[in-house]
Design a protein that fits this description.
This protein has about 425 residues and is an alpha+beta fold. It contains 10 helices and 18 strands. Helix 1 packs across helix 3 and helix 3 packs across helix 9. The relative contact order is 0.15.
Length: about 425
């Protein structure tokens, strides 16, 4: 389907070469400051033609707010967002009248619907993600103002070129990579055309992308994303655990092939004694607790625990390449396809804001769901019939625990 979310709902529309693409966003809280410039920043990071590492298709991707705001403030009603498709060249795709492109969606869309878009990838084109990025910018605007949430994604690998993530120890991730996760900014990410914040790796990634481009080929890669200052308690066990909804969101992005959260598959190689995140007392932690490590990636039992959420998404090499490929026509006759059109030799630099947008949509939707639960529970009388171990202490009790801990620490110093 073309709708994502439960309370914060986004419906995208449009194909690669139709008149426009965009979305309807429902569930935006009223009173949120919002103008087109708040959305345009992320769309401009996603747009084609940014460098010689991306497709040369020249689209400004200028967003137009159609509804749901007045005088720069949201009304709480559905927000319509529209972006014109201006640099269209449908004639570049005449060969796909005869050939389904290998590893593209031409054949499966035709098999599902019985008809298909005549040019480009139709709904499977990355042009569809414009609506996601626009909606994600709105979600991110609320998350930042209401909770100080920060979402930063970056390219962590291209082909076999990786940012170093582990060392010779048994720890799933090296201290250097963990420091990068905790401190990297979008400004650092955007400082290089690859959107890799590791200078040495970025230069090698550039060489790999250029090599693919020069040989009329393509190459894949991975995008890592970190979410900081996420509220505690987000995620709906058991089928809508937060890592499950993140995986759903990320794997709905075109060309994605893999997802891992926290220590991911590397975490399967270390013993539990090295992987467990031990609890420590920390101001600001839920119940006064936090974790000394964060191999869980900020999610335990499918619920956020207040630590940074981090995950990685794998993108395959783009399917449409200009090399001659021996394949078959729709009628089954063998032939040679030489695809035309303007395509990315590697999608991961432009995928960064798409990953950030989908992360924002997941967190925003989960936050609205949790807020509705907490608001409903707050109308009930205080719980007095359960053992203390079954109930989160009220704020006054937490303050008392904190004061006692401070007294004990001071006494130990004397």
């Amino acid at each position: 389907m073309s709708t994502f979310g439960t309370l914060f709902r986004v419906t995208t529309y449009g194909e690669s070469h139709c008149k426009s693409v965009g979305c309807i966003v429902d569930g935006v809280p009223p009173g949120l400051p919002l103008v087109e410039a708040d959305i345009q920043t992320q769309l401009s990071r996603r747009r084609p033609g940014q460098s010689n590492l991306t497709t040369p298709r020249n689209e400004a991707d200028a967003v137009q707010l159609q509804s749901g705001t007045e005088h720069g403030v949201t009304l709480g009603t559905p927000i319509g967002l529209l972006v014109q498709n201006k640099d269209q060249r449908p004639h570049d795709y005449s060969e796909t009248d005869l050939y389904p492109r290998p590893s593209h969606a031409d054949w499966t869309y035709l098999g599902k619907y019985g008809v298909k878009a005549s040019s480009g990838g139709g709904r499977s084109s990355a042009r569809e993600t414009i609506g996601r990025v626009a909606a994600g910018a709105i979600a991110e605007q609320y998350l930042k103002l209401a909770h100080g949430v920060e979402i930063v994604a970056f390219v962590s690998s291209v082909g076999k070129v990786h940012i170093p993530t582990s060392d010779e120890t048994d720890e799933p991730l090296s201290p250097e990579f963990r420091q990068l996760l905790s401190s990297v900014t979008r400004e650092q990410v955007d400082a290089h055309p690859t959107r890799c914040p590791h200078p040495a790796a970025a230069e090698e990634m550039t060489k790999r992308i250029v090599a693919a481009k020069d040989s009329s080929d393509s190459i894949g890669g991975t995008v890592t994303c970190v979410i900081r200052n996420s509220p505690i308690g987000l995620g709906e066990p058991v089928f809508d655990k937060l890592e499950a909804t993140l995986a759903h969101a990320m794997l709905s992005i075109p060309a994605t092939k893999g997802f891992e959260v926290g220590s991911g598959f590397r975490g399967t190689e270390v013993p539990g004694s090295a992987h467990n995140d031990m609890f420590v007392r920390r101001e600001g932690g839920i119940g006064g607790l936090a974790t000394s490590t964060n191999w869980s990636g900020g999610i335990q039992g499918g619920i956020t625990n207040g630590e940074d959420i981090y995950f990685r998404v794998g993108f395959k090499s783009p399917a449409t390449i200009s090399q001659a490929q021996r394949t078959a026509q729709y009628n089954g006759n063998p032939g040679v396809l030489e695809a035309r059109g303007r395509h990315d030799p590697c999608v991961v630099p432009r995928a960064v804001p798409i990953v950030e947008a989908m992360a924002a949509l997941v967190i925003m939707d989960a936050l609205l769901i949790q807020n509705s639960r907490q608001a409903s529970a707050a109308l009930l009388p205080p719980i007095t019939s359960l053992p203390p171990t079954m109930v989160l202490p009220p704020p006054a009790a937490l303050e008392q625990i904190k004061r006692e801990a401070e007294k004990q620490a001071a006494a130990q110093k004397q």
